[in-house]
Amino acid sequence: MDTITIKDIARALNLSTSTVSRALRDSYEINPETKRLVTEYAERLNYRPNPIALSLKENRSRVIAVIVPQIANNFFSQVINGIEAIAYNRGYHVIIFQSHESYEREMLTIQQAVARKADGLLISLSSGTLDVTYLRELQDKKLPIVLFDRVSAQLTSPSVSADNFAGAFAATEHLLQSGRRRIAHLTMPAHISVTQERLAGYRAALEQYGIDYDENLVRYGWFGQDEVEPLVDELLTYTPDAFFAAGDRLTLGCLAALKNRNIAIPDDMSLIGFTNSTVADLLAPPLTTVEQPALDIGQIAAEQLINLIEGKQRDPQPNPIKIPTRLNIRASSK
Asked: CA–CA separation, 136 vs 93, rounded Å?
């Protein structure tokens, strides 16, 4: 089949090409009935904008760059699905980079994205990123930037993330209501935004139930495969009766470590994890989890970025967007 063009749609509907173009862009200048006719006809014939023609006409590449710490993480792969769905529907292509938790690689990948004339950036900061000066400089040059999940208060960019505080509060409260009192918290590096938010939710729940916060029951980990077991051993010396792990790898690593030590879950130890693993209900025992709205985060972040690129949102969203999490209660905490 030949590729359908705006001229073909205009000829078929007896409209001008400029009217069809504005209708497809959802312009306020076109009445709703004409928009409906144009969009329905375009969808029926599977019309897709020509990215090269659009980039020449609009002086834009129609490309957005996404930088994540690691695609293999279930959460980030689901976020990318959300981003790509919105980008495709709005005529944009997506290029994806991984920082592999490295500040240096993050900077290099963003330099590549800028060199490739990406219209904007969607970024979840690496665990190695402490200084965001290079992003502030790009922001000052009017490059549209939206942060998601791991964000920075040092930037005025719009940001989209899960309500980590509420998710951690709900998880800790559930353990407290089930009779647990010494809840160990296994979390990520202290400077990461999601770490701070989840720790705050954990502490707030303890305070509400009259339990003193004990620093001995908190450990900060990175992302290596072999580091979880030693941290679990350290925490076990302080006789916890539950574990709340604040990340995918930490959660699964903690489950494995407890099983390797023949600690019965949930009889001897309850376990809750912050994870978007698709097999949490298939584990033994099925794992209680705080699930992040990854797809929604990706879709909303992409909408925010494209609106900035297209000038539909001239001023960045003044407040961070927080999307509710969901506590899935299963056998590991009952």
From this structure: 24
